[in-house]
Amino acid sequence: MNLLRKLIPAFLWQLDAELLRSHPRVWSTRIHLHLWFLLLLNALVFALGMVLHVDTLRFAEPEELFGYMLVPAIVYFAFWVYRVVRFNVEKRFGLRRSFAEIGEFLLHLVSIALIWTIPYTLASTLAWRAGNLVDDATFTRQIDHLNLHAHAFIGPDAAPYNAMERQNELREGGFPLIPESKDERDEYDPYYGYRYESYYYDDGYYEGTHQFFRSFKEYKARKEYRNEPEDETSLHSIYTTAKSRYRELTNGYGQQADPQAAEWYKARMDSIAGNYPFYFVAHGTFTPYSHDLPLMRPAQLEERYRSFVEQGEAWDHAAIAEALRIAHIYHEGVQERDPASVELRRKLLVGSDTYIHRAKRQMGRIAKAKAWDYFFTEWRVMLPIIVVLAFALSILVGAFKNVYWQPFLIAAVTTGVVPILIMILTLLVARSVFNVREEVFYLYFTYLLLVAFIVVVPFSMRLRAYRTFHAVATLIANLAVPFMPLFTLFLLHEYHDVFGLRELQGKYAHLHWNDLDPVVRAEHNAAVQALREYVLRWHWGMLWAGLALYTFTLHAFFRQVYTRLFALPERK
Question: Using CA atoms, how far apart are residues 82 and 85, in angstroms rounded to an integer?
Fold first, then answer.
């Protein structure tokens, strides 16, 4: 503690003394010291974020760091609670005015909410550094270049285990051979360097990002989903079916192995591979999820590739070398092979040994940092979580300062045990006795129990002697009452359809079953969406209304209940 006191400058000690003399209730919140130590902690965390290793090859995941930093934030919160609850206003000054109650509660609320800055500082610092590793223009150019020349690299990364004739072709091309014996293959994986759980089929053909088509006409007619041809008898469908049958007959899956029949399917695959075009169809394979970067669209990439194939353009070896150089910036495992060898492997339909696709993940992470696309930056989700959690903790801190430890401990145990008991009761009687769904019984029983605790509170003001049950009921009601408006609306909407949303959806679903006009169907869907948004606004409104109602009216009332309840004599 002496070390912490040395960190406080002289002007803060002067402010501390002035607040103690003139505004003891503000002083009791320790807001002035809290803000100072938060500033020091965030400066320290920012410095840590600036010294952590960050480059294009690797950096820590900001979302993981956010989760890790919740631990020191919780430790600091515990220290803050210890300092705040040491000074009890009621014990030293008695009753006070309502606005003083509201002010103290709001200061506690703000103090707890600001503790969230600790994980935000580190995660945001690292995300900012990662997003600025490469400027947007250069990053966009690199991704577009990789996408434009991705057709040179068949498959995701790993070369397949090839049949003997394909091994001979590789040997003639001067490529290092993949292990031929089964024992060697079991211990070798070209991507990870060790045995991998999935099994590689020794059929001599690679199933990657390339597909067979008879012509560009058939190529254009493929489905958007998974880029498959619409025609079930397409050449690619025939090829994949033959490949599947070849594997079954070779390895005996589901039936007895038949090498003679397998050779027939293998010959069919050889015929397709040797007589028809082998087109690349997975355009934009390096494109990360991003709304801000002006990247080339898949349609633009496809048009460029079609021009390359139709006009028979020569392979651009310099562009291939540049693609490998770019990929190596983002993953040290990318192999910068001779462009001529890359071209030969592509023509032989052999999986690329450059491992160029390893760069995709790191490029995606950098794009994510540029877009600030993290769960902790989703303010529509995070802001309510922070406010509600800080709100609930502020209620508990205020209650802990003004009650005995015994009812507080009993209330804490009760809130943990009662939900479990209700669940057991639900499983026993929900369907067998009341013939209702388990979740309906559970929610309504919980709701009625909370209402019962709230009803007990006014009667606590009429007691002539202290009772533990009333103290525990008041504590639980104090925590539950701000959220009761939202809980009530949820039950009315979910199980009584007070807004008519399910009725409207059912009505339109019946009409759509009869092949309604697409324009009218679109109007119906728009009406349902508008009503759904209206219901959502009501839920948000009830949440904030409940919090505001408690803050400016009920909080002062509950503090008066605490003061009177714990001023009563013990029951004899």
Answer: 6
CA distances, 309 to each of 124, 157, 216, 269, 273 (Å): 45, 23, 10, 22, 17
In this prediction the pTM is 0.78
pLDDT tens per residue across span 96-135: 666 778 888 999 999 999 999 999 999 999 999 999 999 9
C-alpha to C-alpha distance for 66 and 203, rounded to whole angstroms? 47
Would you mind telling me the total number of residues written for the chain in this entry? 572
Tokens of 3: 């070390």
d(CA 569, CA 14): 41
**Distance, CA of 353 to CA of 336 (rounded, Å):** 10
Q: What is the C-alpha separation between 40 and 43, in angstroms, rounded?
A: 5
Q: What is the pLDDT of residues 363-378, one digit of tens each?
A: 999 999 999 999 999 9
Say how many C-beta atoms besides its own lie within 10 A of residue 538's C-beta: 16
Identify which of 296, 269, 275 has the alpha carbon closest to the alpha carbon of residue 285. 296
Helix H or strand E segment including 40: helix 31-51
Q: Give whole-number Cα distances, 49 to 170, 330, 515, in Å.
A: 48, 21, 58
CB 131 within 8 A of CB 369: yes
Q: Report how far residue 527's alpha carbon sits from residue 510's, in angstroms, rounded to the nearest whole number.
A: 15
Asked whether the beta carbons of 304 and 322 are under 8 A apart, the reply is: no
C-beta separation of 265 from 241 below 8 A:
no
Rounded CA separation 503/452 (Å): 32
Task: Please report, for residues 60, 121, 162, the alpha-carbon distance to residue 53 in angstroms, rounded to integers and kept in the order given.
Answer: 8, 16, 41
pLDDT digits (tens, 9 = 90+) for 257-303: 788 888 888 888 878 777 777 776 678 889 998 778 899 988 888 88
Distance in angstroms (rounded) separating the CA atoms of residues 83 and 101: 19
Q: What b-and-e string marks burial along 74-96, b requiring 16 or more CB atoms within 10 Å of the CB?
A: eebbeebbeebeebebeeeeeeb
Place of tokens 């009890």: 88
Helix axes 31-51, 117-131, angle to 10 degrees: 30
Tokens, residue 438: 């388990």
Q: How far is CA 453 from CA 444, 461, 484, in A?
A: 14, 14, 12
The CA R_g of the chain, rounded to the nearest whole Å, is: 34
Residue type, 485: P
Q: At 117, which amino acid appears?
A: T
Q: How far apart are CA 109 and CA 116, in angstroms?
A: 12
d(CA 460, CA 9): 46
Q: How many CB atoms lie within 10 A of CB 243?
A: 19
Q: What is the dihedral of CA 18, 21, 24, 27, to 10 degrees?
A: 20
Q: For residue 62, give every residue at least 6 positions away whose Cβ sits within 8 Å of its Cβ, in sequence order, or none.
A: 123, 124, 126, 127, 130, 369, 374, 376
